[in-house]
Amino acid sequence: MDSDDSIQRIERDLRATLLPMLVTRDSLEDVNETTGNQFQQPDWQVAMWALAYSLIILVSVTGNVTVIWIILAHRRMRTVTNYFIVNLAFSDVSMATFNTLFNFVYALHNDWYFGLGYCRFQNFFPITAMFSSIYSMAAIAVDRYMAIIHPLKPRLSSTSTKVVIAVIWIVAVLLAFPQCYYSVTRFYYPRTVCMVDWPDNYGGTHQLSYQFAVILLIYLLPLLVMLVTYSLVGQTLWGSKIPGEASDHYHSQITAKRKVAKMMVVVVVTFALCWLPYHIYFILGSINRDIYKQQYIQQVYLSIFWFAMSSTMYNPIIYCCLNQRFRAGFRHAFSWCPFIKMSEEDKMELQHTHTFRVTMTQSLAMDSQRN
């Protein structure tokens, strides 16, 4: 195999991964004459990117760990929806901890320092965590749909919820397995690269089928499910007026359901917007490989990757801003700070349970009485 063919194979293989490693023909054609690294950035630029990515890790880990503690430490918070939120928070904090930092370091200089084992894990885990995150959101959407549209039908029990979460993770592992199986590390002087070495050429059946299947399964399909379910939920909750003679419990129940639905819609929209540029980037790259040869592609990729990874830090902020119980839980968790005070109302939000059940049948009965 001559030098030109070798360069073409390197370029092809590096682009066969869901995380392109920014190697181009121009960067390799003089490989025997240079000891430098064209991906080396000025110190000030590295510092700025390091600060930006550190913010994601700090906020995501602190916020999501606190969310998990709020739910598991307070009996009132242990609902079906919140168990899925725990799974979502766990996926996000795992992504921030095990993926964000290492991919950032790799994208800075396009030099893999962490060995074959972590290369396999690094290509495997992001898809697993993304699948778990978005299908936790989809499960919440379906649960909200059943609770509001079909309130008389049986709801998921605590055990059933845990089984659904386990199934989500099993399917996620199976979907991500090819990324792990075909991952390799190769040394191309003066760098080591981590890539997914698909059996056929870049743009072949294996790579393209897998890439579009992943985009369909971890982005388009669950978003479609959530669009339909939340549209129906919104039509039910906001499309009809609350009867004037309805009880206070009914009013508070509908208000609470509206707040939960609004909060989860914000979570879903935030996730969709953060990951949209990421998926567009790889779709365009599959259509036109020259995108990866552009002069500023490294900065573009770092920006897109930051925006995608930032999705892991927004949810705790959304919960705190839009949900009174989570807000009380955050005040409890950070009550050691001198400027944060926990009120008696906050304690009651976390400790006391109001048990009442109002069905949509009552609403229909009230409507018929008015007519």
Automatic annotation (TrEMBL):
GO molecular function: substance K receptor activity
Xref: SMART domains: 7TM_GPCR_Srsx (SM01381)
Record has Aminoacyl-tRNA synthetase as a keyword: no
Topology relative to the membrane: Multi-pass membrane protein
TM region positions: 46-72, 84-104, 124-142, 163-189, 209-233, 263-284, 304-322
UniProt subcellular location: Cell membrane
Cystine pairs: 119-194
Gene3D superfamilies: Rhodopsin 7-helix transmembrane proteins
Residue ranges of domain G-protein coupled receptors family 1 profile in the record: 63-319
Similarity comment: Belongs to the G-protein coupled receptor 1 family.
Protein name: Substance-K receptor
Species this chain originates from: Hippocampus comes (Tiger tail seahorse)
